[in-house]
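Q: Hi! First time doing this. I have a protein sequence and I read that you can turn it into a structure. Is that right? Here it is:
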Amino acid sequence: MTDAVGAGEGRGFYSALVLRRQLILMGLALALALSVCTDLALGPASYNLGQVIEGLLWPGQVEDQVRVILWEIRMPVALMAVVVGASLSIAGVQMQTILNNPLASPFTLGISAGAGFGAALALAFGVALVPFAVDYIIPVNAFVMAMLTSLAIYGLSLRQGVSSETIVLLGIALVFIFNALMSLIQFFASQQAVAAVVFWTMGSLTKATWPKLWIALAVLAAAAPLLARRGWQLTAMRLGDAKAESMGVRPRRLRLEVLVIVSLLAAISVSFVGTIGFIGLVGPHIARMLLGEDQRFLLPGAALSGALILSAGSILSKIIIPGTIIPIGIVTSLVGIPFFLYLILNRRVATW
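A: Yes, that's right. Below is the predicted 3D structure, encoded as structure tokens:
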């Protein structure tokens, strides 16, 4: 009888925990919807939320000017913030999981910088790292360099005696190397090419279009289920390689698979909107604090958190200086740097 009562109490506690996490995810989704509507409302021509909702639900009943501004100009930008934020945050949370490092993200480990360097080669000199993919030279170059950077990090992580701190230091070194190479490209490139390269280094959502959005969304829609299918394996990885292997997980193969997916998410994001830092670091930690390590909730929570942060950053970029849209990469860095310092100084990082 006692065992039955204990089991019932355990099931009740677990059900309450699941319900709490589902409510948190719903809250994040509602906050994201409100943020997107606010982003659509702001600009040179400002609208209230009622006008935005009316234009979204019944576009045929609003003025042509309002419909064009909402659907053709602002909607791709607002939704690109959501897709890129979710992509970078998902990439960050999985890198932290497979590398067992709380400071891992596409930005801090140099993957975004590598992808930016690949894109800069295409923009400045027309160099195609994959000759038969000339029509998609920028995203392909970005993916190749992101993948090479990921493989370098993966190879180092396999060496005996390499700590998580060493991996972070390698990532920082790669960031400096790619930044130096980017400066070299700008030195030799034409003035027009330099302007294009600077766009990538700052990060901006203003050049988002519907075709670019559909490509980024397609990559995210393909990557998310692949990671979700490995959810229990990724959750087991948090217990350490030895325990994960005892549960039937192959850590090395899983790391390689996840790094390929992460590289694709980071490369597509960088190729379309430039280098945007700290989303892949801040979003996962917010989700982890709210939802725990269970990938069933952590993965969608990280996606929603990253999307919400970048959407809110898009709003801030419009209102900090009225009439001027500040590059989104600058905004996210200003927000992310204090959080990054907090993680470094917090003792919990040492016991991750």
